[in-house]
């Protein structure tokens, strides 16, 4: 069966790392049909729209989407794209790789971030000159869906359960609902959990990241705490992510457009290629996914390396080396 | 002029570190009148109320309050106490000390956290079985008051300006109002600012804390990011804080009740004693404040040390050593 893969490079280094990941996927000779589409600052400049309707529709119908990065329009692109695939969870592994300088080399975490609501609901008002409000929405149904995914996620692998991160001592009703719902689903499934306040998590993960493994959290907490974990593993450069929906999914590196190096051909393609490995696993190509992960890890360890990792190789050199090692 | 100082030890090690800080203040022979009051889990057990009205009233009338810690009732104690002193800013220095193991020893930050609104407004609802909401409030007036404080804060010392941390790419109206208001006040005062997204801040502060100095942020961002900085300097054990209002203020260590060591007499009093040094500065005793800071730093460097810092001294030993060095 042919799988249709939407490819949305976007802006900046997205134009360099996305083709690199596609080259890796092509090298595996799977029956993929790649369809490219535009999004981001550049297309907005041309057409007035950061996310053209065709691009949205493509992501909403393709089996999977690979997205690069967007510039100033990032939120106008990525939030609707997440909605296009109806993605209820953002899976964000944050793992230190051998050979890469890390603040905390023992970090190996996976964030399962709620991906539809919280402060991302987009309900804001300017009530008076002085007062603005935002309605933060937390639903039992979204919390349940996330928790079911989390239970499935930790059962498939060598995990002992997961941590529920929240701020229910202040957001008693909303994060209370989140925490209790997630805990209830975990209990029903016989999955062990512990509960950690989001501020305490921030301290504890710096002091000893090994005490955590899989972390289930609301939308903004997942945004900030996974970026914190990115800092612990040495930067956003190596972090992949998967936005999973019931029927399709969208994969993207966590990094942005890196305007300082865009166009120079030296962007590190690793995060996007690891995102492509997550795409492979999502579509059932587990063996191929493992091969890509292994080839990326070997290349991070033995080179060639792009300048961000202290080397002087180009994006193309690194991509070729990964393909050679497949 | 006598200053009335409310002393609220609270629960757990609050009962040990608060008297230690009072002993240091007493050793300075300033004309302080200390008045003690209860709050926390223990008084709730007895009376049904975590924050008795007398305690609230005392904090609302004293010149300054020194608070220790509260257990499960922490939010029920500290949030009303912050309101009692009408504190619009929470000042949270996060600095690594020589002689103390830190993930990032070069960390030297001060968070100026908005202290009255954001998700702390307490406006929550369970709309249906499925849906709960929280109203996040951001006002121009609170943002202005914070920004004026921040401008004053950076002018008094060797600071180059401050960073405004926000998430206005998602919370466009509310954090947009926050960011623009703070920036406007800074511009009027000729204070330099830069703007950093809260998630990007979390990554960047781990990678290179020295790129930041004074950080101005909304309430929850300040809560989480200052706890992150606590992780970078080696834990909550050494972090003081000041909740500043127009006419009075409340000082507290950032750490909690430490139930694992409470009652053993080995709690590290440093964070509370540094909080007392902030109290001295607030009341105009700059020279005495400097002496306390210096005595604490010398003791952290040369000992004696409590077990959390690898020593075997008691709270009393450390307190005596600090007093000897005043
Ligand atoms: C660009 C922004 C809207 C987005 C988010 O906040 O989710 C980004 O930070 C991310 O984490 O993918
Ligand atoms: C106890 C809690 C309500 C409080 C907060 O969230 O402000 C604490 O985490 C703090 O930072 O002082």
Task: Report on this structure.
The structure is a homodimer of 326-residue chains. By secondary structure, chain A is an alpha/beta fold. Chain A has 2 domains: 1-93 and 239-325, 3-Layer(aba) Sandwich (Isopropylmalate Dehydrogenase), CATH 3.40.718.10; 103-233, Isopropylmalate Dehydrogenase. Helix content of chain A is 42%, strand content 21%. The first copy, chain A, has 11 helices and 12 strands. Chain A has helices at 14-27, 41-47, 53-61, 74-84, 140-155, 174-188, 198-207, 219-232, 270-282, 286-302, 315-324; strands at 3-10, 32-36, 64-69, 89-95, 108-114, 124-126, 131-139, 162-166, 193-197, 214-217, 240-244, 249-253. In chain A, the strands form 2 sheets. In chain A, strands 2-1-3-12-11-4-5-10-8-9 form a 10-stranded mixed beta sheet, sandwiched between helices. In chain A, β1 (3-10), α1 and β2 form a beta-alpha-beta unit. The interface between A and B is large, with 52 and 52 residues. The structure holds 3-isopropylmalic acid (2 copies). One 3-isopropylmalic acid sits between chains A (74-75, 78-79, 223) and B (169-170, 199). Chains A, B: Residues 4-322 form the Isopropylmalate dehydrogenase-like domain. Chains A, B: Keywords: Oxidoreductase. Chains A, B: It comes from Natrinema versiforme JCM 10478. Chains A, B: Pfam families: Iso_dh. Chains A, B: One of its GO terms (molecular function) is isocitrate dehydrogenase (NAD+) activity.
């Amino acid at each position: 069966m042919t799988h249709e893969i939407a490819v949305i490079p976007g802006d900046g280094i997205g134009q360099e790392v996305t083709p690199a990941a596609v080259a890796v996927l092509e090298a595996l000779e799977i029956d993929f049909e790649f369809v490219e589409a535009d999004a981001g600052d550049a297309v907005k400049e041309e057409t007035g729209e950061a996310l053209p309707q065709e691009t949205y529709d493509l992501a909403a119908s393709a089996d999977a989407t690979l997205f690069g990065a967007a510039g100033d329009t990032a939120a106008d692109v990525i939030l609707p794209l997440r909605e296009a695939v109806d993605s209820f969870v953002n899976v964000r592994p944050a793992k230190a790789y051998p050979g890469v300088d890390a603040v905390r080399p023992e970090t190996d975490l996976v964030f399962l971030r709620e991906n539809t609501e919280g402060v991302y609901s987009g309900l804001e008002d300017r009530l008076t000159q002085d007062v603005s409000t935002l309605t933060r929405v937390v639903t039992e149904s979204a919390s349940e869906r996330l928790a079911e995914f989390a239970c499935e996620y930790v059962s498939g692998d060598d995990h002992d359960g997961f941590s529920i991160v929240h701020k229910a001592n202040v957001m008693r009703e909303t994060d209370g609902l989140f925490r209790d719902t997630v805990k209830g689903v975990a209990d029903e499934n016989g999955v062990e959990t512990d509960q950690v306040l989001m501020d305490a998590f921030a301290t504890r993960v710096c002091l000893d990241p090994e005490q955590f493994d899989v972390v289930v959290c609301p939308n903004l907490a997942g945004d900030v705490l996974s970026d914190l974990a990115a800092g612990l593993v040495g930067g956003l450069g190596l972090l992949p992510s998967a936005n999973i929906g019931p029927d399709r999914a969208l994969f993207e590196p966590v990094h942005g457009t890196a305007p300082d190096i865009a166009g120079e051909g030296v962007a590190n393609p690793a995060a996007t290629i690891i995102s492509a490995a997550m795409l492979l696993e999502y579509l059932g190509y587990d063996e191929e996914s493992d091969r890509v992960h292994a080839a990326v890890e070997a290349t991070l360890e033995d080179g060639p390396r792009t300048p961000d990792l202290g080397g002087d190789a180009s994006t193309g050199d690194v991509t070729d080396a990964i393909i050679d090692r497949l």
